[in-house]
TrEMBL record:
Residues 95-107 have a biased composition (Basic and acidic residues). Keywords: 3Fe-4S, 4Fe-4S, Electron transport, Iron, Iron-sulfur, Metal-binding, Repeat, Transport. Residues 1-30, 31-60 form the 4Fe-4S ferredoxin-type domain. The keyword Signal does not apply. This is Ferredoxin. Ferredoxins are iron-sulfur proteins that transfer electrons in a wide variety of metabolic reactions. Gene3D superfamilies: 3.30.70.20. Its cofactor is [3Fe-4S] cluster; [4Fe-4S] cluster. Residues 86-107 are annotated as: Disordered. One of its GO terms (molecular function) is 4 iron, 4 sulfur cluster binding. It comes from the Bacteria.
């Protein structure tokens, strides 16, 4: 079991999640974070920390976002690790809550 970062993180990237992860299993791209499924210990600490409500347990992924399970696994293998909080992306508040942001994903 793993937790998964989903659509609403894209173009927000608040990074509150990385501060609470006991195993440092977040990986950072230009405008999105992902969780490494082989490193996540399923502790659930990050889920309530995300202001964008973008983190879900693998078995509670909202309908239509199942593709983010595979996407987290794929990108966690190629993006660098992030362990400290940083400023959100410019415009994060405007993008928070928009749907279909997968179209904006930068790799
Ligand atoms: Fe890290 Fe726990 Fe969140 Fe997994 S559930 S990403 S181990 S904080
Ligand atoms: Fe993204 Fe939420 Fe973390 S917006 S960077 S999953 S705090």
């Amino acid at each position: 079991m793993t937790f998964v970062v989903t659509d609403n993180c894209i173009k927000c990237k608040y990074t509150d999640c990385v501060e609470v992860c006991p195993v440092d299993c977040f990986y950072e791209g230009p405008n999105f974070l992902v969780i490494h499924p082989d490193e996540c210990i399923d502790c659930a600490l990050c889920e309530p920390e995300c202001p964008a409500v973008a983190i879900f347990s693998e078995d509670e992924i909202p309908s239509g976002m199942e593709n983010f399970i595979e996407l987290n696994a794929e990108l966690a293998d190629v993006w660098p690790n992030i362990t400290e909080k940083k400023d959100p992306l410019p415009g994060a508040e405007e993008w928070d809550g928009k749907t279909g942001k997968i179209a904006e994903l930068e790799r």
